[in-house]
Amino acid sequence: MITEYTVPGGAVFPEGIAGDPDGSTFYVSSSRDGTIFRGRIDAPELEVWQPAGADGRTSALGMTVDDSGRLLVCGSETGYLFGYDTATGALVDRVRVPTDAGTLLNDVCVVGAHAYVTDSQRPVVWRCALGDRVGEPEEWVDLGDADRTPFLNGIVAVHDGATLLVAAQGTEVLWRVDVATRAAERVDLGGLALSADGMVLVDGLLYTCDNVEEPDGAVRFFLSAFRLADDARGGELVGRLERPAADTPTTVAYLEGRFYLVNSQLMADRSGRAGPPFTVSAVSPDEAAAP
């Protein structure tokens, strides 16, 4: 069984991942040049699926596949949300958030007839209607903080789409947003500060790619498992799998009984030690939820 997948290229710095509904195919994005790669769980190396820079996609972060088979791709500072037909690879949609104040589209999830997109530059979640085409983005909810930049990141739906959980890395807060009312409140994690990136919900547990900065300045990276309260207003840490800081996992997908972690190498890049091969690691639920 393959546990390490290679992403081709010398300066990929992968960031996002999305699983295809077929259960065997997955897509990985490059934060550095916007390339989108496609892989299969039974093949050790990914392939270039959408080339760097195509369609104005100079950077690509979070992704998901909607019910129509579109791969929705967050275009980072370009402000674009791209939509690609997973069957043909054709660009079928490209919409841009309506702001001149700067933007950084980071992650996306789909709930029913809408896509919800986090913005790391502005403290907002954008919403786009989904139909034959992706609708124009609207500013849906503001999670601003008067003292610190929230840097909104991962987003995931719970309660069959009635509730969204949004990670604010800058303030180390996990937000709970009621979809019907747009009311937002902080999730009580028992005093734990959560600096989370990508997230996924599996078998009633919330798994997060997160990090902790130690007093000496060292940063440790984890795939953490949380058991949420029934109303998702609280939760407790039940397990953590530490990952190498040099790998710097940014997000996670769940396919065919395993977690797929994107190794961005962003920490290694800061010290000039990043380089190929760039990889995606697969780990079992037993490893991921180890106490």
Textual characterization of the structure:
This protein is mainly β and 291 residues long. It has one domain (4-288): Methylamine Dehydrogenase, Chain H (7 Propeller), CATH 2.130.10.10. It is 3% helix and 50% strand. It has 2 helices and 24 strands. The chain has helices at residues 266-270, 285-288, and strands at residues 4-7, 14-19, 25-30, 36-40, 47-50, 63-65, 70-74, 80-85, 91-96, 105-111, 114-119, 124-129, 138-142, 152-158, 163-168, 173-178, 184-186, 195-202, 205-213, 219-228, 235-243, 249-255, 258-263, 278-283. The chain has a 4-stranded antiparallel β-sheet. The protein has a 4-stranded antiparallel β-sheet with strand order 2-3-4-5, with no helix packed on it. The chain has a 4-stranded antiparallel β-sheet with strand order 6-7-8-9, with no helix packed on it. A hairpin with a 5-residue loop joins β8 and β9 (91-96). The longest helix has 5 residues, at 266-270. It is globular, with a radius of gyration of 17 Å. The two termini are 24 Å apart. The mean pLDDT is 96.
Short description, anyone?
The protein is mainly beta. The chain contains two helices and 24 strands.
Number of domains: 1
Tally of helical runs = 2
Q: Name the CATH superfamily assignment.
A: YVTN repeat-like/Quinoprotein amine dehydrogenase
Amount of beta strand = over 45%
> Structural class, from helix and strand content?
mainly beta
Number of separate strands: 24
Coarse morphology: globular
Q: Based on the structure given, which CATH architecture is correct? A: 7 Propeller
Averaging pLDDT over every residue, what do you get? Answer: 96
Distance between the termini: 24 Å
Helix content: under 10%
The CATH class is Mainly Beta
Going across the biggest sheet, name each strand in turn: 1-24-23-22
Biggest pleated-sheet summary = 4 strands, antiparallel
Rg (C-alpha, Å): 17 Å
Question: Helix and strand succession?
Answer: EEEEEEEEEEEEEEEEEEEEEEEHEH
Fold-level CATH name: Methylamine Dehydrogenase, Chain H
Low-pLDDT runs of 5+ residues are none
